[in-house]
Amino acid sequence: MGGRQVTSKRQAIAAILDAAGSTPVICTTGYTSRIAQSLGHRPHNLYMTGSMGLAAAIGAGIASATGRPAIVVDGDGSVLMNTSVLCTVGSMPDLPLTHIVLDDGQYASTGGQPTYSERHDLAGIASAAGYRYVMSTSEPAELTATVARRTAGEAGPLFVHCRLSTSVEDPGPRIAEALHEHAARFRRAVLGQPAAG
């Protein structure tokens, strides 16, 4: 499944956010969060600052606690740092989690050091860990269509491996909002609670 078109991280994130609607989107730390913020803030976006490797764990917790779809926009380096989360997600066959791994083969926000992800079959690892659905694509249109389908409530964890170009791009500014304020704002949006004052 999937095409051959290699896309940039910005194109991939834009494609995901275009279809996310009010579904929570948890963005891994670094450039992914900064790019997502620069594309236009959504109250249902959670921009991780630090905690590398934990985006999928947070997304799984949100999907499990609410019983509603959640989307994780992860990176190859982040997944390789915490592959144990794949086993946790894979053990929850009805979890409505879409776990998208944007794989550019590098730790972009710390200087471009290689992750060596090309040596490992990330989709195969997710499949072996128990993800109900696994796919690979590098086509923005397919990412948008997949996210749109998943936000409609398709159950079972989906792992999407998206191979990207390695070109360096401007991620936009760092996340300026205080972490506790950002977390509270995200919680209100996800749980449907009114904003304070």
From TrEMBL:
The lineage of its organism: Bacteria, Bacillati, Actinomycetota, Actinomycetes, Micromonosporales. It holds the Pfam family TPP_enzyme_C. InterPro entries: THDP-binding, TPP_dependent_decarboxylase, TPP_enzyme_TPP-bd. It comes from Micromonospora eburnea. This is Thiamine pyrophosphate enzyme, C-terminal TPP binding domain. Residues 44-162 form the Thiamine pyrophosphate enzyme TPP-binding domain. The keyword Isomerase does not apply. GO terms for molecular function: carboxy-lyase activity; magnesium ion binding; thiamine pyrophosphate binding. It comes from the Bacteria. Keywords: Decarboxylase, Lyase.
